[in-house]
Structures are given as C-alpha cells and as structure tokens.
C-alpha cells in the first residue's frame, strides 16, 4: 500500500545519499511506523477541498498545465484516487481546506484525532455545508479489517454519513441466490459497522430503518470480489426524492483493498 511505498522511497533516498563522496551516513534506526488514511468529501453542498494533516497537504488534484487544480476533492469524491495516504503515527488536526481561488485554503472542517501506528482510517466531511459560517461536520472511523482474513469471501461494512437520517442497517441481497443478509448491525450517523464476510457475487443493496421492510436508500448490481474489502457509505440528503439530484441519498462503494 501507500505506506510501504513511502517507506521504500525513503530507504532508497538514504542509500543514494550514502553513496555521495562527502555524504554523512546516518543509520539511527528504522523508518518510524505510520498510519494509513482515506479522505472523503461527503458534506452536502460543500466546495471542493484539499485535505490536510496539521499544515501538511495530503491530497490535491493536478491539471493539464501541471499546476494544482482549483477543483480539489469535490462532493461525493475521495482523495488520492481512492488510495490510502501514509502519515506518521501521532496527533493531528485533520482539515478540508477550500481549493478554489476564492477563500483559498480556508478550513471548512477540522477534527483533532490520534492516528495509531499500523492502523487504517477513513476521514469524512459530512452533513450539510453552512455557506454562511463556511463550515461542515467531520468524523473519522477506523478501517478495522478482521485480522484472520479469509480470501475466499469479500468483506463489506456500512458507514453512515447522512446527518438527517435515523440509524440504518445495510442489507445485501445476492442477485443469483436471492439470499438477503444484514451487513452488520444498525448504524447511527458518524459511525461505521464491522466488516462482514459475504460470498463473492453481485448484490442489490438497501438501507432500512428499524422495524421497516422498505429501503430508505437502494443501489443495485454491486459486485463484491473474494479477497477484497469494501465500504458502503451513505451520503446525501435523506429528504430528497429526485432520482437525479446531486444531493439525493446515495450508497457509495469504495474498495479498502
């Protein structure tokens, strides 16, 4: 993953430096352990942002001119092309900062947290963007994949990022066998369920409120491959009934690995 690539690059740099005629060879110890993190912009109506860890820019979007684009990670998007970014373990203020020229680098979300070594996380901008205060909510969850990994099945979990929706349970119905199962337990806003093993296949997904049999949000024809890990994230405005509106409630599918 990105963390291993970063460590490898650092080790290569140290080796090259030691080959220089006057280089000072420093072999103080191993590369510090790090954490991995994904960044999601699920804040309804939020502007495009670049994500930061303290003052370090972690995500940015390039352009055809070679300059940083002013679009940033737009609503519904995930930073770094959906890959994890590596950060040294430690305490951080994670922020989404406006990428556009107007209000450039203004932080619209801030979250203080501690990232532990050898753990993976997902950071979400969520809820509704306040255009007056220029703020949006945010939360972070640990991507806690089961340590005893079974490569014959897929692992799926549900993350709830819709601020005006009640707690929901994600259901997955296999389109071949017709078997439907709950993917973990009921999940409240700003929370994530446990990764649940599912047979490889194509599934119709739906989230439901407690005691109801109708879906609050639906998505059909989602493929889960054995040996892979997926997060289904709910985003949008639960009151929107349009099937085309940008802010309609949606189930986002992102591969963790």
Layout of helices and strands, plus pairs?
Blueprint: H1 2-19, E1 34-41, E2 49-53, E3 56-57, E4 77-78, E5 85-88, E6 90-98, E7 107-115, E8 120-130, E9 135-142, E10 153-160, E11 169-174, E12 180-182, E13 191-192, E14 196-199, E15 201-208, E16 217-224, E17 229-235, E18 250-255
Parallel strand pairs: 1-8, 10-17
Antiparallel strand pairs: 1-4, 1-5, 2-3, 2-6, 6-7, 8-9, 10-13, 10-14, 11-12, 11-15, 15-16, 17-18
How is this structure best described in words?
By secondary structure, the protein is mainly β. The chain has 3 domains: 1-30; 32-143, Immunoglobulin-like, CATH 2.60.40; 146-257, Carboxypeptidase-like, regulatory domain (Immunoglobulin-like, Sandwich), CATH 2.60.40. The chain has one helix spanning 2-19, and strands at residues 34-41, 49-53, 56-57, 77-78, 85-88, 90-98, 107-115, 120-130, 135-142, 153-160, 169-174, 180-182, 191-192, 196-199, 201-208, 217-224, 229-235, 250-255. It is globular, with a radius of gyration of 20 Å. Mean pLDDT is 88; it is low at 1-29.
């Amino acid at each position: 993953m990105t963390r291993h690539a970063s460590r490898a690059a650092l080790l290569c740099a140290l080796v090259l430096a030691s080959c220089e005629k006057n280089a000072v060879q420093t072999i103080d110890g191993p590369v510090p352990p790090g954490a991995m993190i994904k960044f999601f912009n699920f804040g309804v109506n939020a502007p495009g942002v670049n994500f930061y860890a303290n003052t370090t820019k972690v995500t940015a979007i390039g352009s055809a001119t070679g300059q940083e684009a002013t679009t940033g990670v737009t609503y519904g998007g995930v930073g770094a092309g959906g890959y994890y970014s590596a950060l040294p373990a430690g305490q951080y203020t994670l922020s989404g900062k406006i990428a556009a020229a107007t209000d450039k680098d203004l932080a619209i979300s801030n979250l203080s947290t501690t990232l532990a070594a050898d753990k993976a996380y997902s950071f979400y901008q969520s809820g509704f963007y306040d255009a007056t205060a220029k703020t949006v909510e945010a939360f972070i969850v640990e991507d806690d994949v089961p340590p005893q990994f079974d490569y014959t099945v897929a692992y799926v979990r549900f993350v709830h990022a819709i601020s005006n929706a009640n707690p929901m349970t994600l259901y997955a119905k296999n389109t071949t066998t017709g078997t439907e199962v709950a993917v973990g337990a009921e999940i409240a806003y700003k929370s994530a369920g446990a990764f649940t093993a599912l047979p490889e296949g194509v599934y119709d997904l739906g989230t439901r409120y407690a005691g109801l049999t109708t879906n609050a949000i639906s998505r059909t024809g989602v493929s889960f491959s054995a040996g892979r890990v997926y997060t289904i994230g709910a985003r949008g405005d639960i009151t929107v009934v349009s099937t085309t509106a940008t802010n309609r409630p949606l189930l986002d599918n992102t591969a963790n690995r």
